[in-house]
Design brief:
mainly alpha
Amino acid sequence: MPPLWTSARASRRSALMSLLSANGLTGGLFADAEMAAALSDRSWLAAMLDYEAALAWAEARAGVIPEAAAEVIASCCKVEDFDIAEIGRRTTLAGNPAIPLVAMLTAKVRAKDPAAAEFVHYGATSQDVIDTALGAIATRAEHLIQNLSLIHI
């Protein structure tokens, strides 16, 4: 079983690199590049996908879903395979980002293994995904705050 939060770690570096070259309206006034990356849309997406992969592996370990289904689900939880802007457009209609994310993930799993698709997000709610992702992101942000060596004023 792969370790939890692996896609978030991989995406963090990519997000950090893009933020380092960005010159937004406030620059680094409210957050440095590392904190901005930790709180980015990409980090949210990575945390939600990590939740879905972890849920599938936990349910497979408990005998709730087949291990083969968990393997396919986890293999489809790659941030780079999802369109953040499209999830955002669908979120407006759905009311939260978990609904379109789960629909898109289910379609990706169905394309690989139709039988595994029925186990995507099995027994979970949209709020489970959102709350767990928020907790993961908050934990990362807290870690960054605790490791501050300089305060920029």
